[in-house]
Amino acid sequence: MAAPTIKSFSPSSSGKAGSEVNIIGTGFGNTQGSSTVTFGSTTATVIKWSSDEFGVTVPSSLAAGATTVVVTVGGVASNGATFTVS
Questions:
Q1: 68: which strand partners?
Q2: CATH code, domain with 31
Q3: Cis-peptide into 59, omega within 30 deg
Q4: Based on CB atoms within 10 Å of each CB, which residue in 8, 17, 49, 56 is the most buried?
């Protein structure tokens, strides 16, 4: 299995804790299953999922500043992508 890849965020690579953001990339799989999305060490709530884009809620417990987002699919972690919490 190829590792999932995060390419970008929509609408932006920054936003407030508790806001919704879409993560765009490849290799996410057609359904979420046991896949997870983490902002640093905090797991995000997934709103919608597809093989190349999904929506999450930025964890409300995050403090302002840069954090690394990682998608793990089938036990395989993606590249880390920087998201800035404002």
A1: 82
A2: 2.60.40.10
A3: no
A4: 56
The helix/strand/coil state of 60 is coil
Contacts of 41 (CB under 8 A, 6+ apart): none
| pLDDT given at position 1 | 67
Which of 61, 23, 26 shows the shortest CA–CA distance to 41? 61
Residue 65's domain spans which residues? 5-85
Instruction: Give the whole-angstrom CA distance, residue 30 versus residue 14.
Output: 26
What is the full per-residue pLDDT of the chain (86 aa) written as tens digits?
689 999 999 999 999 999 999 999 999 999 999 999 999 999 999 999 999 999 999 999 999 999 999 999 999 999 999 999 99
CA atoms in the 13 A half-sphere facing the CB of 43: 6
Looking at the 3D structure of the chain, how many domains does it have? 1
